[in-house]
Amino acid sequence: MRVAQRLDDPVSVTRAEPKTPTEASVEQGFFAPVRGSLAGIIGLSVLGAVTGVVPFIAIVELARTLLPAVSGGWIDVGRVWLIVAVAVVALFVSFGAAFASGLVSHLADARLQHSLRGRIVGHLRRLPLGWFDRRASGTVRKLVENDVNALHQLVAHAIHDVVTAVTVPAVSLVYLFVVQWQLALAALVPLVVTAILYPVLMRGGAEKYRQYDESTAALSEATVEFVHGIAVVKRFGQVGRSHRRYRDQTKQYSRFVAEWTRETATMFTVIEIITSPVVVLVWLLAAGLWLVGAGVAAPIDVLPGLLMGLGLTGPLLKLGSSAQFLRDATKAQASLSGFFALSPVPPPDEPSIPQGRGVVFDNLSFSYDGEHRVLHGITATCAPGTVTALVGASGSGKSTLAKLVPASTTLSPARWRSEVPTSPRSRQPSCIGR
Predict the structure, then answer these.
(1) Three-state secondary-structure class, residue 14
(2) Average per-residue pLDDT for the chain
(3) Sequence ranges of the domains in the chain
(4) Could you read off the pLDDT of 290-335 as tens digits, one per residue?
């Protein structure tokens, strides 16, 4: 079996570098299987949000229609039943649209996860073995599980939540400005104050999130190391050494989380108080009573402000919680983009099943960085039935040469030739590490 051969002048062979992921590759690769479903999720979410506001508008209009009955006046019964019918239909449409949006989003998420995991496993099969040697098993687990699950939160939940959180306040404010613009301005006050305070709360958030990710990763590594070392602890009794790193990382993580919580607790509490339903209700009542007392608005005009104004801050807080899902999904996209951009081992132009068990190196040179050669013009034959020993000083390239046999180390496609096909696997020789 000829596994490596120099195909040109004796210039060092360089390792292929990973491609830089682009925005186009992310867009085409990740969401192509569910792009139509994403548009459907957005449309159904908008429909559900708009029709969800209609019953509240119907309550206001029903109160206006029934108000003359208080003084014994005439009531338009037909209009009353029309308002009730519109409210009932809108309510059922809202429930149906929300259910359909959730169904479509979860079906799309299932297709996306199936597509991504299939692509990940397929790409893992084509990567050089050295990629696995340089990484822990947790890297593969993160790609297949954590990163894909982060996109699950985006597709199955965050899109619907974000669209609803934007549409409901927008529709409510439009109606309020139509019926009573002064009260609409009063309803905007909690939103404006929250919009001013939130950047203060998130000041330095990018750096804090980066430190949080690093602390979490370090704690995970220390936990795995501690669990794997339990057998050694039982055998040799080195309890203090084995769990020292785990204990230190746990303390460091706890200190970081506690410090971050203390820094943001006050501002977060202020925002929660300002956006709480009780505070908003008191503020709107005070504004409404002032407008009525000033003769600017009728008492019935306060009702839409109370009903619609109370529904403005809730979606805003939900939008804030969805920001974490969007952040995790963005990180997962970047991680998967970098993974899919890794250059796989190039397949042979004319694959052939090895007929013997020999290995031939023909004038092989190799360099990791393209400048400093590790191997120089090696020509050797490892005949079947013989044992080949690689002898040399530490750092002389013994392991590098051995890893070139199963393509553990990647060579650039222009200077690498492998005559071994990628399938069927059952008919190929194996490399067993010891």
Answers:
(1) strand
(2) 77
(3) 2-17+346-427, 23-180+297-340, 190-280
(4) 988 888 888 888 888 888 888 887 777 777 777 777 888 888 888 8
CB count in 10 Å sphere of residue 434: 2
Secondary structure of the chain: what % helix, strand, coil (to 5)? Answer: 70, 5, 25
- pLDDT tens-digit series, residues 362-379: 777 777 656 667 787 888
The answer to whether 58 touches 90, Cβ cutoff 8 Å, is yes
Return the percentage of the chain with pLDDT > 70, whole number: 76
Measured CA to CA in angstroms, residue 364 lies from 265, 378, 395 at distances of 62, 5, 18
> Closest by alpha carbon to 190, among 331, 108, 287, 262?
287
Which CATH code for domain 23-180+297-340? Answer: 1.20.1560.10
Residue 364: DSSP 8-state: E
Q: Are 139 and 318 in contact (CB under 8 A)?
A: no
pTM of the model: 0.69
3-state secondary structure 392-428: CCCCCCHHHHHHHCCCCCCCCHHHCCCCCCCCCHHHC
